[in-house]
Amino acid sequence: MDTFTFPKEDIRVLTEEEPEPDFFPTKKNIQNSFKWLVEDCMAGDSLVFYFSGHGIKQFDLDGDESDGFDETICPVDFMEAGTITDDEIKSAIVRPLKKGVTLNAIVDACHSGTVLDLPYVYNRKEKKWENSTRLSEEEKHTDRGLAISLAACEDIQVAADTSSCIGKSSINGGAMTSVLIQIVEKKPTITYGKLLDSIYEDIEKANKEGCLPRIIKGMLNNILSQRPQLSASKEFDVNSRFLILQ
To answer: CB count, 10 Å around CB of 142?
Structure first.
């Protein structure tokens, strides 16, 4: 609200601390909130999906993943209700995006690299777009909108938590979340390319200083997009509707 001027009524937060049962992060509530995020979206809307929690891999049953595994996020009741797969997320919040609508997904979870099943990956080292590793080209595009995903790690990696020493403040939570908040508060008009580089550099610095509990050197090499035409020099742009899952 302070940095990107989101109206309070356009922000939905699901956490285990929420007093209302409809905002507890169960599988059903998350699925309902996906619908809320994209319903009635129109040209000019910029949507945000933020997830901080557990992510796991599970066997791919429809044969569209080259590594044989779907990436998933875990609702609080996933042991009973099951996980939410990348296929489900794509169908719920990527495919409905109409022309002129942008979705920024920020996923701070293990195995989150391709959790939106987007077709292109931006390689920050080579400064170029590459095809993702999905086998199937069907049903992975939006309805002419734009989907962008920032993930905490690659599909084969685990994400890191941090309790201190990233920047000047002590923030409990995901390492990517901690550095991203500090970067966009200082530079709200930063470009996607510079944002990706800055997150990676800050985490590398914390790694070398021994601030993180495990080596995460390979994380944040990539940003994913619905189309390769997204320029790394485009400004990070969010301002319409925000869904937060923790």
So the answer is: 21
> Rounded CA gap, 61 and 209, in Å?
42
Residue 243's closest CA among 12, 34, 35?
12
User: What is the C-alpha to C-alpha distance for residues 200 and 41, in angstroms, rounded to an integer?
Assistant: 32
| pTM of the predicted model over 0.70 | yes
CA angle 29, 219, 202 (to 5 degrees): 105
pLDDT band at 236 (very low <50, low <70, confident <90, very high): low
Has residue 8 got a pLDDT over 70? yes
Long-range pairs, 200-207, Cβ under 8 A, ≥24: 200/124, 202/166, 202/167, 203/160, 203/166, 203/175, 203/176, 203/179, 206/162, 206/165, 206/166, 206/175, 206/179
Top mean pLDDT of 23-32, 144-153, 216-225 is at: 23-32
Q: Between the CA of residue 107 and those of 46, 61, 66, 216, what are the distances in Å?
A: 17, 23, 21, 16
Task: Return the active site residues.
Answer: 54, 110
From the CB of residue 127, how many other CB atoms can be counted at a distance below 10 Å? 9
pLDDT higher at 246 or 148:
148
Q: Going by C-beta distance under 8 Å and a sequence separation of 6 or more, which residues neighbour residue 166?
A: 175, 178, 179, 182, 202, 203, 206, 211
